[in-house]
Design a protein that fits this description.
Blueprint (H helix, E strand, L loop, with lengths): L4 E6 L4 H11 L3 E7 L3 H11 L3 E2 L2 H5 L6 E4 L6 H10 L3 E4 L7 H14 L3 E3 L7 H11 L6 E9 L24 H17 L2 E9 L10 E8 L4 E7 L9 E8 L3 E6 L5 E5 L16 H11 L7 H20 L3 E2 L4
Helix pairs in contact: 4-5, 5-9, 7-9
């Protein structure tokens, strides 16, 4: 029988939703402990799920029942908490992005490697069946040579309190950016996962509506090592709309794929060329927790490893630099 791993959660803002998910639907992990500086929130979660609450994360990291640490704190605190977890011998599932700065993200990766623990980054869209099948089709050559792609994110984040509650959203220090970094990074990550290694970025960003430090509208062109290009648009000013709208378009020499939806890309249009011999059966969907548990069992990198997740962060940091300088930015991912 496969082992079940205990999960300890640092941060009960976003972390509370993970509590529900772990208890309600995950089979390879169990909720083992939570940590939050807010005593009311911590005690309530502890009572609801019958697990220990720790005010200090160092105490939770000493709990032998915790095998995996979910880091669900503001992005600017990810390095502190992820590195501490790795040094305590815990596997890490870090919410996206790894950190607000590339050097800090690289430190997380290096510390996890040094400690011999697995690092999964919270890009759950890689786990969906449609996403995994799309990547499978690309690797099998069913789209032919990738020519260009588009990512469009039209979301509304003007509800009262969205940017003011917690005091970290829309700030450079703790959020690391705006529409690209907070919302768009999920889908930029997916697009880069499909398209391959990015090498150059030209970006333009603006704060047009909300009283925040970071962008609420952004556009960019990304060039990939293959020569293909992508056009990115992200905004949190798309009002009035009933639901957030997101779309990824992939055009190859032999076919195209369009994934669309809101937070989850649950609609797919496919027009593909003939399958190459030996293409194999496409993979099924999974979850970040199930994949991480299996990666620990197998001694392999998880589906959203730190190294691969670094690419989308590098693209977004380059967008901001390009927007500030007015020049194309070359990427150094080594």
């Amino acid at each position: 029988m496969a082992r079940t791993y205990g999960v300890g959660i640092i941060g009960l803002g976003m972390g509370r939703a993970h509590c529900q998910r772990i208890v309600g639907s995950e089979k390879r992990v169990r909720l083992a402990a939570v940590c939050d500086v807010d005593a009311d929130r911590g005690r309530q979660t502890s009572e609801t799920y019958g697990i220990p609450w720790y005010p200090k994360y160092a105490d939770m990291l000493a709990d032998p029942g915790v095998d995996i640490v979910l880091v669900a704190t503001p992005t600017g605190m990810h390095a502190e908490h992820s590195i501490a977890a790795a040094r305590a011998g815990k596997h890490v599932l870090c919410e996206k992005p790894l950190d607000v700065e590339l050097p800090a993200a690289r430190r997380i990766i290096a510390e996890c490697r040094k400690a011999g623990v697995r690092l999964q980054v919270g890009f759950q869209n890689r786990c969906s069946q449609d996403s995994r099948r799309t990547r499978h089709d690309i690797e099998a050559g069913r789209l032919g040579r990738l020519l260009f792609s588009e990512m469009q994110l039209h979301w509304w984040r003007g509800k009262p309190g969205y940017f003011t509650k917690g005091g970290w959203r829309g700030t450079w220090r703790y959020d690391g950016g705006g529409a690209f970094m907070n919302q768009g990074i999920h889908f930029i990550d997916l697009l880069v996962w499909f398209m391959g290694r990015p090498v150059a970025v030209l970006g333009r960003c603006a704060t047009t509506l909300f009283p925040i430090e970071t962008e609420d509208v952004g556009m960019a062109i990304v060039t990939f090592e293959s020569g293909a290009r992508a056009c990115l648009t992200a905004t949190t000013t798309a009002h009035p709309i009933e639901t957030d709208r997101t779309r990824i378009y992939l055009q190859g020499s032999e076919g195209r794929v369009v994934l669309s939806g809101s937070y989850t890309l649950d609609r797919t249009e496919v027009e593909l060329g003939k399958a190459r011999p030996g293409a194999g059966r496409p993979p099924r969907g999974t979850t970040l927790y199930a994949d991480l548990a299996q990666a620990i069992d197998d001694g392999r990198d998880p589906i959203s490893s730190g190294e691969s997740a670094l690419h989308s962060l590098a693209v977004i940091k380059a967008i901001y630099k390009s927007s500030k300088t007015g020049r194309e930015v070359k990427l150094d991912l080594d």
